Amino acid sequence: MRAVIAEDSVLLRIGLVKVLEMAGFEVAAETGDAEALLAAVAAHEPDLALVDVRMPPGFTDEGVRAALMIRQQWPATSVLLLSQYVEERYAADLLAGRAGGIGYLLKQRVADVEEFIDAVRRVAAGGTALDPQVVSQLLLRRGGGIDPLERLTPREREVLALMAEGRSNAGIAAQLVVGESAVAKHINNILAKLDLPQADGDHRRVLAVLRFLDGTS
Question: Could you give the CA distance from residue 198 to residue 177 in angstroms, rounded to a whole number?
Answer without folding.
Answer: 30
